[in-house]
Amino acid sequence: VHQSKLDFFCKLGYGKQDICRVLENLGQEALEDDVLKELIRMGSKPQALENQAQPSQLKLVARGTCSTTPGLKWLGEDESDASSSLRPIVIDGSNVAMSHGNKEVFSCWGIQLAVDWFRERGHTYIKVFVPLWRKEPPRQDSPIADQHILEELEKQSILVYTPSRKVKGKRVVCYDDRYIVKVAYETDGVIVSNDHYRDLQNENPEWKWFIEHRLLMYSFVSNRFMPPDDPLGRHGPTLSNFLSKKPVPPEKKWQPCPYGKKCTYGNKCKFYHPERLHQAQLSVADELRAKTKVPLALGREEERCQCPP
Fold first, then answer.
1. Do 188 and 209 contact (CB within 8 A), yes or no?
2. What's the gap between Cα 189 and its chain centre?
3. What is the mean pLDDT of residues 81-92?
4. Cα 185 from Cα 282, distance rounded (Å)
5. Which of 43, 217, 219, 230 has its CA 20 to 30 A from that of 1?
6. Contact in structure between 244 and 189 (CB atoms under 8 Å)
7. Beta bridge partners of residue 225, listed in sequence order
8. Please, which pLDDT band fits residue 95 given cuts at 50, 70 and 90?
9. pTM: predicted TM-score of the whole model, two decimal places
């Protein structure tokens, strides 16, 4: 009983010494509520509250740069997210849902598929932006499927609603695309959308560069979320390097020479020669020059030795 109570209050964050002292005073059969009251009366605080009471060591720094310096942390961002090697993910919820619903239905299941895909890869910072009016009951002109998924993602602190309100019967909606680009830009993350945000590119030149280099497009194939393996084209980075803060350079693969041992290019050949690993890769002409120079040099040394001093 003593051990079970000790473990219970340790999980709440209280120190073992304070818990043992209270149990000695009240007895081992004391109720948990009584033990908690006594801990509060003694002034004992959980470790989480003590850490919050201490002065914060964070310094306010200017945001708005795309650098990945470890000292620049976004306020409110978890340390686990900052130490992760994967970039934050910001999903355009409306774009993903309408793409999954064939531009006819706002399919919330598409958002869930995208979130699950990034979770399986190990991403911990995932944010989905959806207008607030999507919480309202669906209408004929704007049907919504699987609306309960939005509530579940909101409880998991993944879904964020952009503000909207009604003024004299008219809905006033904030521009959710600006939220998406701004959060992705400040967290140095990746935007998941098939939208090019051309209006925002013209609005801010820094956003223009960021959207061009950090926009991840996608497709849905049989209820499967599929981003491209080459997000920036054939000559750009791979998908793994695109989503990583520390990209890994690809291994250099040498193509074997089509001429094999008959190649006469020597060290000027751009292809791979396995038979020349431990040989000086000289061209045929250079090898002949080297062979002709060696006997001439030996003959001159012999003549010098034979000459009288």
1. no
2. 6
3. 78
4. 52
5. 43
6. no
7. 220
8. very high
9. 0.56
| Backbone Cα Rg of the chain | 33
Residue type for 266, please?
Answer: G
**Sign of the CA dihedral with 93 first, then 95, 99, and 101 last:** positive
Instruction: Look at the block and give the residue holding tokens 């002109």.
Output: 141
Q: How far apart are CA 106 and CA 128, in angstroms?
A: 14
Give how far Cα 309 sits from Cα of 45, 61, 297, 298, Å.
100, 82, 20, 19
**Contacts made by residues 103-108, CB under 8 angstroms, sequence distance 24+:** 104/143, 105/143, 105/144, 105/145, 106/134, 106/138, 106/142, 106/143, 106/144, 106/145, 107/145, 107/146, 108/144, 108/145, 108/146, 108/147, 108/148, 108/149, 108/150
> How is residue 45 written in tokens?
């605080």
Tell me the C-alpha to C-alpha distance, in Å, between residue 32 and each of 23, 27, 36, 208, 226.
10, 11, 6, 58, 51
Query: For 172-180, what is the mean pLDDT?
Result: 86
Contact, 244 vs 86, CB < 8 A? yes
pLDDT band at residue 284 under the 50/70/90 scheme: low
Judged against a pLDDT cut of 70, whether residue 250 lies above it is answered with: no
Strands of the chain (E only): list them: 89-92, 106-107, 126-131, 144-145, 159-162, 164-167, 170-173, 190-192, 215-216, 219-220, 225-226
Q: Decide: 87 and 245 in contact? Cβ < 8 Å.
A: yes
Residue type at position 93: G
If you search the block for the tokens 């993602």, which residue do you land on? 153
What confidence tens digit (pLDDT) does each residue in 2-46 have? 677 777 777 667 777 787 888 778 777 777 777 777 777 776 666
Report pLDDT digits (tens) over 292-308: 765 555 455 555 555 55
